[in-house]
Amino acid sequence: MGQKVQGTEDLYGSHMRAWQRMQDVARELFGAYGFDMIETPALEQVDTFVHGIGESTDVVRKEMFRAFSGALLDGLLAKGSESGLKPRQRMALRPEGTAGVVRAAVENNFVPQGAAPVKLWYAEPMFRGERPQKGRLRQFHQVGVEWLGAPDPASDAECIIMLMEYFKRLGFDPARLTLSINSMGDAACRPAYREKVRSFILDHADEMCEECLERAEVNPLRAFDCKNDYCREVMKGAPLAPENLCDDCAAHYAQVKRYLDAAGVAYAEDSTLVRGLDYYTRTVFEVEVAGSGVGAIGGGGRYDGLMELEGGKPTPGLGFAVGFERIVLALAAQGVELAGEEPSCVYVAGTSADERQAVFVATLSLRQAGIRAEADYQGRSLKSQFKQADKLHALLAVVLGPDEVAAGMATIRDMSTHEQVQVPMAELAEAVVARLS
Ligand code: AMP
Protein backbone atom coordinates (compact mmCIF):
# COMPACT_ATOMS: atom_id res chain seq x y z
CA MET A 1 0.00 0.00 0.00
CA GLY A 2 1.32 3.44 -0.95
CA GLN A 3 1.87 5.98 1.81
CA LYS A 4 1.84 9.73 1.72
CA VAL A 5 5.13 11.54 2.23
CA GLN A 6 5.77 12.44 5.87
CA GLY A 7 4.67 16.00 6.57
CA THR A 8 2.04 16.05 3.80
CA GLU A 9 -1.71 15.68 4.15
CA ASP A 10 -4.64 14.57 2.04
CA LEU A 11 -7.16 17.39 1.95
CA TYR A 12 -10.75 16.12 2.04
CA GLY A 13 -14.01 16.32 3.99
CA SER A 14 -14.09 19.00 6.70
CA HIS A 15 -10.42 19.85 6.16
CA MET A 16 -11.13 20.60 2.50
CA ARG A 17 -14.22 22.62 3.43
CA ALA A 18 -12.06 24.64 5.84
CA TRP A 19 -9.51 25.35 3.07
CA GLN A 20 -12.31 26.39 0.72
CA ARG A 21 -13.79 28.66 3.38
CA MET A 22 -10.43 30.34 3.84
CA GLN A 23 -10.39 31.04 0.11
CA ASP A 24 -14.02 32.23 0.03
CA VAL A 25 -13.43 34.71 2.86
CA ALA A 26 -10.24 35.89 1.16
CA ARG A 27 -11.97 36.33 -2.22
CA GLU A 28 -14.68 38.48 -0.68
CA LEU A 29 -12.51 40.58 1.64
CA PHE A 30 -9.44 41.00 -0.58
CA GLY A 31 -11.77 41.64 -3.54
CA ALA A 32 -13.25 44.60 -1.66
CA TYR A 33 -9.72 45.98 -1.34
CA GLY A 34 -9.19 45.58 -5.10
CA PHE A 35 -7.09 42.38 -5.18
CA ASP A 36 -7.40 39.83 -8.02
CA MET A 37 -6.39 36.19 -7.79
CA ILE A 38 -3.20 34.81 -9.34
CA GLU A 39 -1.72 31.32 -9.52
CA THR A 40 1.95 30.91 -10.37
CA PRO A 41 3.58 27.53 -11.07
CA ALA A 42 4.57 25.38 -8.07
CA LEU A 43 7.79 24.71 -9.96
CA GLU A 44 10.16 27.64 -10.49
CA GLN A 45 13.79 28.08 -11.38
CA VAL A 46 15.93 27.95 -8.25
CA ASP A 47 17.30 31.39 -9.10
CA THR A 48 13.87 32.96 -8.61
CA PHE A 49 14.08 31.99 -4.94
CA VAL A 50 17.80 32.58 -4.53
CA HIS A 51 17.52 36.14 -5.91
CA GLY A 52 14.39 36.97 -4.00
CA ILE A 53 14.52 35.14 -0.69
CA GLY A 54 18.29 35.31 -0.34
CA GLU A 55 21.10 32.78 -0.62
CA SER A 56 21.88 32.95 3.11
CA THR A 57 18.35 32.19 4.38
CA ASP A 58 17.44 28.85 5.94
CA VAL A 59 14.59 28.52 3.45
CA VAL A 60 16.97 28.58 0.47
CA ARG A 61 19.96 26.87 2.05
CA LYS A 62 18.23 24.01 3.83
CA GLU A 63 14.52 23.79 3.16
CA MET A 64 13.93 24.07 -0.56
CA PHE A 65 12.80 20.88 -2.31
CA ARG A 66 14.88 20.66 -5.47
CA ALA A 67 13.43 19.02 -8.57
CA PHE A 68 15.22 17.24 -11.43
CA SER A 69 13.83 15.17 -14.27
CA GLY A 70 14.77 11.48 -14.03
CA ALA A 71 17.08 11.75 -17.05
CA LEU A 72 18.89 14.73 -15.57
CA LEU A 73 19.22 13.10 -12.17
CA ASP A 74 21.01 10.06 -13.64
CA GLY A 75 23.59 12.36 -15.20
CA LEU A 76 23.94 14.37 -12.00
CA LEU A 77 24.51 11.30 -9.86
CA ALA A 78 27.14 10.06 -12.30
CA LYS A 79 28.90 13.45 -12.29
CA GLY A 80 28.39 14.15 -8.59
CA SER A 81 27.69 17.84 -9.18
CA GLU A 82 25.06 20.13 -10.66
CA SER A 83 27.59 22.78 -11.62
CA GLY A 84 27.15 22.14 -15.36
CA LEU A 85 23.38 22.67 -15.30
CA LYS A 86 21.74 25.61 -17.02
CA PRO A 87 19.55 27.89 -14.85
CA ARG A 88 16.41 26.46 -16.46
CA GLN A 89 17.43 22.94 -15.44
CA ARG A 90 17.77 23.91 -11.80
CA MET A 91 14.25 23.85 -10.41
CA ALA A 92 12.59 23.87 -7.01
CA LEU A 93 9.11 23.58 -5.55
CA ARG A 94 8.10 26.99 -4.24
CA PRO A 95 8.75 27.41 -0.50
CA GLU A 96 6.75 30.65 -0.36
CA GLY A 97 4.55 32.69 -2.67
CA THR A 98 6.09 36.15 -3.00
CA ALA A 99 9.17 35.41 -5.13
CA GLY A 100 7.08 33.62 -7.81
CA VAL A 101 4.45 36.37 -7.99
CA VAL A 102 7.15 39.04 -8.28
CA ARG A 103 8.92 36.97 -10.97
CA ALA A 104 5.59 36.79 -12.85
CA ALA A 105 5.08 40.55 -12.43
CA VAL A 106 8.50 41.26 -13.93
CA GLU A 107 8.16 38.68 -16.73
CA ASN A 108 4.67 39.86 -17.74
CA ASN A 109 5.29 43.56 -17.03
CA PHE A 110 2.35 43.87 -14.61
CA VAL A 111 3.53 47.28 -13.40
CA PRO A 112 4.80 49.34 -16.34
CA GLN A 113 6.50 52.59 -15.34
CA GLY A 114 3.95 55.08 -14.09
CA ALA A 115 1.13 52.51 -13.96
CA ALA A 116 -1.27 52.12 -11.06
CA PRO A 117 -0.28 49.48 -8.49
CA VAL A 118 -1.22 45.87 -9.11
CA LYS A 119 -2.85 43.94 -6.29
CA LEU A 120 -2.80 40.14 -6.35
CA TRP A 121 -3.77 37.36 -3.96
CA TYR A 122 -3.14 33.63 -4.05
CA ALA A 123 -4.14 30.41 -2.26
CA GLU A 124 -1.53 27.75 -2.92
CA PRO A 125 0.42 24.84 -1.48
CA MET A 126 4.00 25.62 -0.41
CA PHE A 127 6.83 23.13 0.08
CA ARG A 128 9.59 23.21 2.67
CA GLY A 129 11.88 20.38 3.70
CA GLU A 130 11.38 20.86 7.43
CA ARG A 131 11.18 18.26 10.18
CA PRO A 132 7.44 17.57 10.36
CA GLN A 133 5.68 18.34 13.63
CA LYS A 134 2.39 19.88 14.80
CA GLY A 135 1.76 22.99 12.69
CA ARG A 136 4.93 22.38 10.65
CA LEU A 137 4.47 20.48 7.41
CA ARG A 138 6.48 19.85 4.30
CA GLN A 139 3.53 20.67 2.09
CA PHE A 140 1.34 23.32 3.65
CA HIS A 141 -1.06 25.93 2.31
CA GLN A 142 -0.91 29.67 2.35
CA VAL A 143 -3.24 32.47 1.43
CA GLY A 144 -1.26 35.58 0.62
CA VAL A 145 -1.37 38.97 -1.06
CA GLU A 146 1.20 40.99 -3.01
CA TRP A 147 0.73 44.69 -3.67
CA LEU A 148 3.22 45.96 -6.24
CA GLY A 149 3.91 49.59 -7.08
CA ALA A 150 2.75 51.10 -3.79
CA PRO A 151 5.29 53.22 -1.87
CA ASP A 152 2.76 55.00 0.38
CA PRO A 153 2.71 54.15 4.12
CA ALA A 154 -1.08 54.02 3.77
CA SER A 155 -0.64 50.78 1.81
CA ASP A 156 1.37 49.24 4.70
CA ALA A 157 -1.43 50.20 7.08
CA GLU A 158 -4.19 48.99 4.74
CA CYS A 159 -2.41 45.66 4.27
CA ILE A 160 -2.19 45.16 8.04
CA ILE A 161 -5.80 46.29 8.58
CA MET A 162 -6.99 43.87 5.88
CA LEU A 163 -4.99 41.03 7.48
CA MET A 164 -6.50 41.67 10.92
CA GLU A 165 -10.00 41.87 9.39
CA TYR A 166 -9.31 38.55 7.61
CA PHE A 167 -8.48 36.86 10.92
CA LYS A 168 -11.65 38.30 12.45
CA ARG A 169 -13.81 37.03 9.61
CA LEU A 170 -12.23 33.58 9.90
CA GLY A 171 -13.55 33.47 13.48
CA PHE A 172 -10.64 34.66 15.65
CA ASP A 173 -11.40 36.65 18.78
CA PRO A 174 -9.51 39.90 17.99
CA ALA A 175 -8.70 40.32 21.69
CA ARG A 176 -6.52 37.19 21.52
CA LEU A 177 -4.51 38.26 18.50
CA THR A 178 -1.13 39.93 18.95
CA LEU A 179 0.06 42.04 16.04
CA SER A 180 3.78 42.83 16.24
CA ILE A 181 5.32 45.42 13.95
CA ASN A 182 8.81 46.71 13.29
CA SER A 183 10.77 48.62 10.67
CA MET A 184 13.91 47.05 9.24
CA GLY A 185 15.14 50.08 7.28
CA ASP A 186 16.06 50.15 3.61
CA ALA A 187 19.04 50.12 1.28
CA ALA A 188 20.12 53.51 2.68
CA CYS A 189 20.25 52.64 6.39
CA ARG A 190 20.15 48.85 6.65
CA PRO A 191 23.79 48.13 5.63
CA ALA A 192 25.15 50.32 8.45
CA TYR A 193 22.69 48.78 10.90
CA ARG A 194 23.65 45.24 9.81
CA GLU A 195 27.27 46.14 10.38
CA LYS A 196 26.49 47.38 13.90
CA VAL A 197 24.71 44.11 14.71
CA ARG A 198 27.57 42.11 13.21
CA SER A 199 30.09 43.93 15.42
CA PHE A 200 27.86 43.45 18.44
CA ILE A 201 27.69 39.68 17.85
CA LEU A 202 31.46 39.46 17.36
CA ASP A 203 31.96 41.48 20.59
CA HIS A 204 29.82 38.86 22.36
CA ALA A 205 31.22 35.86 20.47
CA ASP A 206 31.98 33.86 23.62
CA GLU A 207 28.34 34.13 24.78
CA MET A 208 26.69 33.03 21.54
CA CYS A 209 26.17 29.80 19.61
CA GLU A 210 28.20 28.70 16.58
CA GLU A 211 25.28 29.32 14.25
CA CYS A 212 24.93 32.95 15.39
CA LEU A 213 28.64 33.48 14.76
CA GLU A 214 28.08 32.19 11.24
CA ARG A 215 25.01 34.46 10.95
CA ALA A 216 27.15 37.44 11.95
CA GLU A 217 28.91 37.08 8.60
CA VAL A 218 26.02 36.15 6.31
CA ASN A 219 22.86 37.53 7.89
CA PRO A 220 23.48 39.05 11.34
CA LEU A 221 19.87 40.21 11.92
CA ARG A 222 18.77 36.56 12.03
CA ALA A 223 20.52 36.25 15.39
CA PHE A 224 17.46 37.99 16.91
CA ASP A 225 15.52 34.85 15.92
CA CYS A 226 17.98 32.26 17.32
CA LYS A 227 16.26 29.31 18.96
CA ASN A 228 18.75 29.38 21.86
CA ASP A 229 17.48 31.39 24.84
CA TYR A 230 21.00 32.47 25.80
CA CYS A 231 21.61 34.01 22.36
CA ARG A 232 18.28 35.82 22.46
CA GLU A 233 19.16 37.10 25.95
CA VAL A 234 22.44 38.55 24.62
CA MET A 235 20.65 40.01 21.60
CA LYS A 236 18.41 42.01 23.96
CA GLY A 237 21.37 44.34 24.32
CA ALA A 238 22.01 44.59 20.55
CA PRO A 239 21.39 47.80 18.59
CA LEU A 240 17.73 47.93 17.55
CA ALA A 241 16.46 48.63 14.06
CA PRO A 242 14.02 51.49 14.83
CA GLU A 243 16.83 53.44 16.50
CA ASN A 244 18.99 53.09 13.40
CA LEU A 245 16.58 54.16 10.67
CA CYS A 246 17.39 56.94 8.19
CA ASP A 247 15.03 59.93 8.21
CA ASP A 248 12.89 58.61 5.34
CA CYS A 249 12.43 55.19 6.93
CA ALA A 250 11.68 56.73 10.33
CA ALA A 251 9.07 59.03 8.78
CA HIS A 252 7.53 56.10 6.88
CA TYR A 253 7.31 53.98 10.04
CA ALA A 254 5.82 56.84 12.07
CA GLN A 255 3.16 57.40 9.39
CA VAL A 256 2.26 53.69 9.26
CA LYS A 257 1.69 53.79 13.02
CA ARG A 258 -0.43 56.96 12.75
CA TYR A 259 -2.66 55.24 10.17
CA LEU A 260 -2.99 52.14 12.35
CA ASP A 261 -3.87 54.36 15.34
CA ALA A 262 -6.48 56.18 13.25
CA ALA A 263 -8.01 52.83 12.26
CA GLY A 264 -8.06 51.68 15.90
CA VAL A 265 -5.81 48.68 15.18
CA ALA A 266 -3.86 47.61 18.27
CA TYR A 267 -0.21 46.66 17.74
CA ALA A 268 2.92 45.96 19.75
CA GLU A 269 6.20 47.37 18.54
CA ASP A 270 8.77 44.58 18.58
CA SER A 271 12.17 46.00 17.69
CA THR A 272 13.64 42.51 17.38
CA LEU A 273 11.13 41.29 14.78
CA VAL A 274 13.21 40.55 11.67
CA ARG A 275 11.37 37.76 9.76
CA GLY A 276 13.26 35.01 8.01
CA LEU A 277 13.52 36.23 4.44
CA ASP A 278 16.09 38.71 3.12
CA TYR A 279 13.80 40.70 0.88
CA TYR A 280 12.01 42.70 3.56
CA THR A 281 12.58 46.46 3.87
CA ARG A 282 10.94 48.94 6.23
CA THR A 283 7.66 47.65 7.72
CA VAL A 284 7.47 44.02 8.86
CA PHE A 285 4.67 42.44 10.87
CA GLU A 286 3.61 39.13 12.36
CA VAL A 287 0.45 37.87 14.11
CA GLU A 288 0.28 35.34 16.93
CA VAL A 289 -2.67 33.95 18.86
CA ALA A 290 -2.34 33.98 22.64
CA GLY A 291 -2.26 30.48 24.08
CA SER A 292 -2.56 28.62 20.77
CA GLY A 293 0.95 27.14 20.89
CA VAL A 294 1.33 27.17 17.09
CA GLY A 295 3.64 30.16 16.61
CA ALA A 296 2.90 32.86 14.06
CA ILE A 297 -0.27 32.35 12.01
CA GLY A 298 0.72 34.96 9.47
CA GLY A 299 3.12 37.72 8.67
CA GLY A 300 4.57 39.90 5.98
CA GLY A 301 6.05 43.23 5.19
CA ARG A 302 7.41 45.63 2.62
CA TYR A 303 9.95 44.55 0.01
CA ASP A 304 10.89 47.62 -1.97
CA GLY A 305 14.00 46.02 -3.51
CA LEU A 306 12.50 42.70 -4.58
CA MET A 307 11.30 43.62 -8.09
CA GLU A 308 14.88 44.68 -8.90
CA LEU A 309 16.32 41.49 -7.39
CA GLU A 310 14.03 39.55 -9.76
CA GLY A 311 15.33 41.55 -12.73
CA GLY A 312 12.66 44.26 -12.93
CA LYS A 313 12.71 48.04 -12.61
CA PRO A 314 12.78 49.46 -9.08
CA THR A 315 9.20 49.04 -7.86
CA PRO A 316 8.09 49.19 -4.24
CA GLY A 317 5.89 46.39 -2.95
CA LEU A 318 4.52 44.68 0.10
CA GLY A 319 2.45 41.68 1.10
CA PHE A 320 1.65 39.01 3.64
CA ALA A 321 0.98 35.28 3.87
CA VAL A 322 -1.06 33.27 6.34
CA GLY A 323 -0.75 29.56 6.96
CA PHE A 324 -3.92 27.50 6.58
CA GLU A 325 -2.93 24.54 8.76
CA ARG A 326 -1.86 26.75 11.68
CA ILE A 327 -5.05 28.78 11.43
CA VAL A 328 -7.14 25.60 11.69
CA LEU A 329 -5.16 24.56 14.81
CA ALA A 330 -5.33 28.02 16.40
CA LEU A 331 -9.07 28.30 15.75
CA ALA A 332 -9.67 24.81 17.13
CA ALA A 333 -7.83 25.87 20.32
CA GLN A 334 -10.49 28.61 20.64
CA GLY A 335 -13.28 26.10 20.00
CA VAL A 336 -14.00 27.45 16.52
CA GLU A 337 -14.50 25.08 13.61
CA LEU A 338 -13.54 26.75 10.32
CA ALA A 339 -15.12 24.12 8.10
CA GLY A 340 -18.78 24.89 8.68
CA GLU A 341 -21.58 22.36 8.27
CA GLU A 342 -21.56 19.48 5.85
CA PRO A 343 -23.64 20.41 2.79
CA SER A 344 -27.32 19.49 2.79
CA CYS A 345 -29.18 17.98 -0.15
CA VAL A 346 -32.51 16.81 -1.51
CA TYR A 347 -32.92 13.03 -1.68
CA VAL A 348 -35.06 11.43 -4.40
CA ALA A 349 -36.51 8.08 -3.29
CA GLY A 350 -38.52 5.50 -5.24
CA THR A 351 -40.81 3.03 -3.49
CA SER A 352 -39.57 0.20 -5.73
CA ALA A 353 -37.27 -0.56 -8.65
CA ASP A 354 -40.17 0.20 -11.03
CA GLU A 355 -39.78 3.91 -10.23
CA ARG A 356 -36.05 3.97 -11.03
CA GLN A 357 -36.63 5.75 -14.37
CA ALA A 358 -38.82 8.43 -12.77
CA VAL A 359 -36.26 8.90 -9.94
CA PHE A 360 -33.52 9.31 -12.55
CA VAL A 361 -35.44 12.05 -14.39
CA ALA A 362 -36.52 13.86 -11.21
CA THR A 363 -32.95 13.90 -9.83
CA LEU A 364 -31.62 15.38 -13.06
CA SER A 365 -34.28 18.10 -13.09
CA LEU A 366 -33.33 19.14 -9.53
CA ARG A 367 -29.64 19.28 -10.39
CA GLN A 368 -30.38 21.39 -13.44
CA ALA A 369 -32.07 23.85 -11.09
CA GLY A 370 -28.82 24.03 -9.10
CA ILE A 371 -29.99 21.84 -6.21
CA ARG A 372 -27.60 19.30 -4.68
CA ALA A 373 -29.68 16.15 -5.29
CA GLU A 374 -28.94 12.53 -4.45
CA ALA A 375 -30.66 9.21 -5.19
CA ASP A 376 -30.15 5.52 -4.52
CA TYR A 377 -27.84 3.55 -6.81
CA GLN A 378 -27.80 0.29 -4.82
CA GLY A 379 -31.40 -0.95 -4.90
CA ARG A 380 -32.14 0.01 -1.27
CA SER A 381 -35.57 -0.42 0.33
CA LEU A 382 -37.59 2.78 0.91
CA LYS A 383 -36.78 2.63 4.63
CA SER A 384 -33.08 2.41 3.99
CA GLN A 385 -33.30 5.17 1.37
CA PHE A 386 -34.71 7.45 4.09
CA LYS A 387 -31.85 6.43 6.40
CA GLN A 388 -29.42 7.29 3.65
CA ALA A 389 -31.20 10.63 3.13
CA ASP A 390 -30.66 11.47 6.83
CA LYS A 391 -27.01 10.52 6.60
CA LEU A 392 -26.59 12.88 3.64
CA HIS A 393 -28.26 15.71 5.60
CA ALA A 394 -31.24 15.83 3.25
CA LEU A 395 -33.59 18.69 4.09
CA LEU A 396 -36.29 17.33 1.78
CA ALA A 397 -37.03 13.98 0.17
CA VAL A 398 -38.90 13.59 -3.08
CA VAL A 399 -40.85 10.32 -2.95
CA LEU A 400 -42.04 8.60 -6.10
CA GLY A 401 -44.43 5.61 -5.94
CA PRO A 402 -46.45 3.90 -8.70
CA ASP A 403 -49.53 6.10 -8.07
CA GLU A 404 -47.51 9.32 -8.22
CA VAL A 405 -45.71 8.25 -11.38
CA ALA A 406 -48.99 7.22 -13.08
CA ALA A 407 -50.56 10.59 -12.15
CA GLY A 408 -47.46 12.63 -13.15
CA MET A 409 -47.09 13.81 -9.53
CA ALA A 410 -44.33 13.77 -6.89
CA THR A 411 -44.47 13.87 -3.09
CA ILE A 412 -42.16 16.30 -1.30
CA ARG A 413 -41.45 15.30 2.30
CA ASP A 414 -39.87 17.63 4.85
CA MET A 415 -37.22 15.47 6.56
CA SER A 416 -37.50 17.19 9.94
CA THR A 417 -41.28 17.79 10.29
CA HIS A 418 -42.27 14.83 8.07
CA GLU A 419 -44.92 17.07 6.47
CA GLN A 420 -45.75 16.01 2.90
CA VAL A 421 -47.22 17.79 -0.13
CA GLN A 422 -47.92 16.59 -3.65
CA VAL A 423 -46.88 18.66 -6.66
CA PRO A 424 -47.05 18.05 -10.42
CA MET A 425 -43.82 16.45 -11.65
CA ALA A 426 -43.39 19.30 -14.17
CA GLU A 427 -43.25 21.80 -11.30
CA LEU A 428 -41.02 19.73 -9.00
CA ALA A 429 -37.81 21.79 -9.22
CA GLU A 430 -39.67 25.05 -8.76
CA ALA A 431 -41.57 23.70 -5.73
CA VAL A 432 -38.36 22.32 -4.15
CA VAL A 433 -36.52 25.63 -4.65
CA ALA A 434 -39.43 27.50 -3.05
CA ARG A 435 -39.40 25.17 -0.04
CA LEU A 436 -35.63 25.37 0.41
CA SER A 437 -35.68 29.14 0.43
P1 AMP B 1 6.60 32.52 6.35
O1 AMP B 1 6.55 32.49 4.85
O2 AMP B 1 7.67 31.65 6.93
O3 AMP B 1 6.55 33.89 6.92
O4 AMP B 1 5.26 31.82 6.81
C1 AMP B 1 4.01 32.46 6.75
C2 AMP B 1 3.01 31.59 7.46
O5 AMP B 1 2.95 30.30 6.84
C3 AMP B 1 3.41 31.27 8.90
O6 AMP B 1 2.95 32.27 9.76
C4 AMP B 1 2.71 29.96 9.14
O7 AMP B 1 1.37 30.18 9.47
C5 AMP B 1 2.78 29.28 7.81
N1 AMP B 1 3.90 28.31 7.71
C6 AMP B 1 5.21 28.55 7.45
N2 AMP B 1 5.92 27.41 7.40
C7 AMP B 1 5.05 26.40 7.64
C8 AMP B 1 5.16 24.97 7.70
N3 AMP B 1 6.31 24.33 7.50
N4 AMP B 1 4.04 24.25 7.97
C9 AMP B 1 2.85 24.87 8.15
N5 AMP B 1 2.68 26.21 8.09
C10 AMP B 1 3.76 26.98 7.84
From TrEMBL:
Domain Aminoacyl-transfer RNA synthetases class-II family profile: 1-343
EC number(s) on file: 6.1.1.21
Coiled-coil positions: none
Keywords: Aminoacyl-tRNA synthetase, ATP-binding, Cytoplasm, Ligase, Nucleotide-binding, Protein biosynthesis
InterPro entries cross-referenced by the UniProt entry: aa-tRNA-synth_II (IPR006195), aa-tRNA-synth_II/BPL/LPL (IPR045864), Anticodon-bd (IPR004154), Anticodon-bd_dom_sf (IPR036621), His-tRNA-ligase (IPR015807), HisRS-like_core (IPR041715), HisRS/HisZ (IPR004516), HisRS_anticodon (IPR033656)
Taxonomic superkingdom: Bacteria
GO cellular component terms, semicolon-separated: cytoplasm
Catalytic activity: tRNA(His) + L-histidine + ATP = L-histidyl-tRNA(His) + AMP + diphosphate + H(+)
Binding site for L-histidine: E96, G97, T98, R128, Q142, E146, R275, Y279, Y280
Pfam family, one: HGTP_anticodon
Record-level GO BP terms: histidyl-tRNA aminoacylation
Localization of this protein: Cytoplasm
Family annotation (SUPFAM superfamilies): Class II aaRS ABD-related, Class II aaRS and biotin synthetases
GO MF annotation terms: ATP binding; histidine-tRNA ligase activity
Keyword Plastid found: no
CDD domains, per database record: HisRS-like_core, HisRS_anticodon
Oligomeric form and interacting partners: Homodimer.
Family per similarity comment: Belongs to the class-II aminoacyl-tRNA synthetase family.
Protein's name according to its UniProt entry: Histidine--tRNA ligase
Lineage: Bacteria, Bacillati, Actinomycetota, Coriobacteriia, Coriobacteriales
